[in-house]
C-alpha cells in the first residue's frame, strides 16, 4: 500500500466531537456539508461550484420536510403477503414524502497535518441509498443497501497541501420500499485516523464462553492491521477489563512476534455482574497496542456478560431464568424527525417502551444504528437484529432482490461485525416474510445465510419472521432455522410445534391491531379491515387487518402454550408509510399499528400491554374519553386496562357493577369491560379493588367543557449544549377545570427564544398533511408534541405555545453540560 509521505497542511474544520484521544482519533462529520437534490455529473470534482447548495447538518433526511403528496411513489401493486389477489393503487405507502431521486453531499474533510504513517478511514453508519463515496474525485467505496454500515480507507486518495473533498452520491429508486425509508446521509459519518499499525474498525470480537455465578471466562480476539506482508513485528497487546464503575478488575499483556493478524486473550472474571434488561451491567475492555515498544492504538470494546439459551426443555432462558420476550417491532424512522438519527429521540422512545414493560425490540426489517444498539445495551433492552425484507424473490420491483446475489454475504458480515459485541443483541434475523419461503431454493438460501451468521458469530442463533406457514412446515424451511419465528400465526403454533424439531416457537410479529389515538367508533366492533369515512381506526383496540389479530389473540397463545417464547408486537411506535387499512385512501400516510402514535403519545393500547408486562408497577387506565355531545342515552362501552384483579365502575356516582378478569372470554381475560353503559355527561370513575375486594386506587374522566387553556409538559428541561439534544414537549388543550378536550383541534403556534431552536411538531394523526418542520399545527384529540433542539451555547431557552382564543403557556429550559 502506498503511504503518503511527509505532512499534510489541511485545515482543521468542523470537528465536532472527538470520541477518543489517544493514537486513534475519531470524529463525527456533522457540520459543514453542502447538499443538493439532483444529479450532478461533475460534483465529484474538487473545483465544482456548490455555492448555491443547501448547508446541512448530518444526520440529514432530505425528504422529511415534504411536502406530502399522493403522487410521491404512487404504487399500483398487489401485496401478495397481505393476501391481495389483484393490484390496486396504493397511496402513502412510503409516507407520501419525496424520498425518490438522486442527492449529492459534499464536504471539505476536516483533516489536520497527518503525521507520517497515519491512516485515514471513513465510516458510514448507513446512507440511503446506493451510496457512492468519492474523495478528491476518485471513488473510495460504494454500498447499495441503505441500512447497513460500511467503511473504507481513504489514505491513498488524500492530497497534500490542499483541501480534500468528500462527495457522496445517493440514489433512491421508486418502488424500492414498503415503508418510508428516509433519504440521504441519515445516520452518522465518522472520520477515523489511526497509526500505520492499528486495530481495524470493528476489529475486536468479545465472547464469554462460560459463565457461572462465581466466574466468567472472557475471550477477546483482536485483529491487528497495518503490518507489512511477512513482517515479523514485536507486538504487545495490553488489555484492562473495567467494571461498571470504571475500576480495572483484571489486566493482561500479550506479546507476540506476530506473523498472524490477530491476538487472542482470555480472562477469568470473578463474581461477574450479569447483564439483563432488569440490570444492564456493562464492562469495558480497553486494549493498548504496542509495536516495538511504541503505543500505536487504544481501542475500547464495551460488553456484557450473560447466558442465552433456547431449548425444548425451557424455551428461552436468560442467565438461567426462563422468560418470554415482551417485545415490539419498530421501523427506524423517528416520526417527524424522519430517518435522521438522534440519540435523545431514541432514548425517549426506549424509556417509554421500558415503562410499558417491554424488554425487547426487533429492528424491523433492517440493521439498527449504533446509537440504538448502544442505548439498548445501556438501558437493558434485548434486540433481534434483522437484516432483510427480501432475498432473491421480489416483494418490490427495486427492492433488495436486485442486490441479493452480489451483496447478501457482505451485508451480513458488516451487520454482524458491527454488532456482535453488544450484550443486547440476542438473535440475528436473516429475513422477514421473504417470498423465498415458498420457492424451491428457499431452504438452501436460508441454510446458507444462517451458516454465514454462524461463521461470523457462533454464539447466537438465527431466525426468520415467517408468514407462509403451510409452505415452511412442509418444505423444511422452518425446520432448518435455529429458531422458528412466525408472524401472525397464534392459531397455528400448536401444529407447528408438533412437526418442528426445535421444541419452541417465537411470535416474531404479532397483533397488528390498528387504532388512532383518542378516536372511538360506535358500535364497538371487532374485525378486520374496518374502514371509516374519517380514515381513522377505533381505540377500543379490537380492529385489525385481514392477516392480523387483536392483542388478546396472541396473549392467549403466549399464556396457554408453554413452548412459546414470547412475542414482538407490530409495532411499538407508529411509523411513516404503510397506512393499512387505509393504503388506498389518501391522505392517510402513516401507520395505525403503533402502541404509541407518530408524535410519541401513548394510545390506550399502551396501557393494555403495560398491565400485562410491567409487573412492578400498577396500571389503571380507563377509556374512552367522556365528552360525547349527541350520544346521550346511547350505548358507550367503558373499558379498563389494569393489573388489579377487579374494579367497580361508576357513572355519575351510580355503580355499573364490579368486573373481574374473566378467563373464559377472549377480551375479558385482559380487559375489564362494561359493555352496556349509556352515555350521560358528567363523569365516569373506576375504583380498583385488591384481591380481598378493598378499594385501592381510582381514576376519573369528566366531560370536558370548551377549550380554555394550553398545558405543556416536557420530558426533560435540562438539555445538553451540544446542538443535538432534544426536548419533547407535550401540548394539551384543557377546559377551565383542567379536563382534556378530546375533540379539540385548535391550531397552535410555537415560539422559541434563547438557547433552543424549534425542531419539529407532530400530532399523531395519520391523515394530517401539515408539515413537521413548520412551527404550527392542529392538535389531534386534544394533543400534540413539539420538539426543541439545544444550541451549542450554554444558557436558557424558552418555548411559548399559543392558540387563538386560548390562554398560552410557556416552558423554560436550561442548556448546559
Ligand atoms: C407484516 C410485515 C410487516 C408489516 C405488517 C403489517 O406482514 O412483516 O412489515 O407489513 O405485516 O401488519
TrEMBL record:
Keywords for this protein: Glycosidase, Hydrolase, Signal
Location of the DUF4982 domain: 633-696
Molecular-function annotations in GO: hydrolase activity, hydrolyzing O-glycosyl compounds
Domain Glycosyl hydrolases family 2 sugar binding, chain residue ranges per copy: 29-191
Keyword Nucleotide-binding included in the entry's annotation: no
Source species, domain of life: Bacteria
Range of residues in the leader sequence: 1-21
GO BP, sorted A to Z: carbohydrate metabolic process
SUPFAM superfamilies cross-referenced by the UniProt entry: (Trans)glycosidases, beta-Galactosidase/glucuronidase domain, Galactose-binding domain-like
Domain Glycoside hydrolase family 2 catalytic residues, every copy: 315-474
InterPro entries with a match to the protein in the record: Beta-gal/glucu_dom_sf (IPR036156), DUF4982 (IPR032311), Galactose-bd-like_sf (IPR008979), GalB-like (IPR048229), GH (IPR017853), GH2_Domain-Containing (IPR051913), Glyco_hydro2_dom5 (IPR040605), Glyco_hydro_2 (IPR006101)
Domain Glycoside hydrolase family 2 immunoglobulin-like beta-sandwich: 205-306
Classification via NCBIfam families: GalB
Stated family: Belongs to the glycosyl hydrolase 2 family.
Protein name, UniProt field: Glycoside hydrolase family 2 sugar binding protein
Lineage: Bacteria, Pseudomonadati, Bacteroidota, Sphingobacteriia, Sphingobacteriales
